[in-house]
Amino acid sequence: MKREDLDIKMDHLEAMLSPWLSRSRHDLQFWPQFNVLAEEILSVADTTDRLHFLYRIHVMLAAQGLIVSVVQPTELDDDVQIFANDTSARND
Known about the structure:
Shape: globular
Number of domains: 1
Number of helices: 3
Number of strands: 0
Helix content: 55-70%
């Protein structure tokens, strides 16, 4: 799938993240659903674009306080799993 199309999907995921988190009763409901939606994007991304989308997901999660820091895209390994179930960074 084209990067532009996946960027649109990623924009939609990012736009729904804040309202989704505010309606979620518990983080255990959020993470499995988020992982499925993020993996749908990552699984069809070209290998050359995968780091771009991993970085966007990382930034998105950091902006919501779900992860602590943002790394540069060149620091991400293609096999890094950033969808941790550790929600200790969340401030609710």
